[in-house]
Amino acid sequence: MILYPAIDLKDGQCVRLLKGDMDKATVFGDDPAAQARAFATAGCEWLHLVDLNGAFAGRPVNGAAVEAILKAVEVPVQLGGGIRDLATIGMWLDKGVARVILGTVAVEEPELVREAAMHFPGRVAVGIDARGGKVATRGWAEETDMEAADLALRLGDAGIAAIIYTDIDRDGAMQGPNVAATARLAQGTHVPVIASGGVSSLDDLRALRDAGGISGAISGRALYDGAIDLKEALALL
Question: What predicted TM-score, i.e. pTM, was given to this entire model?
Answer without folding.
Answer: 0.91
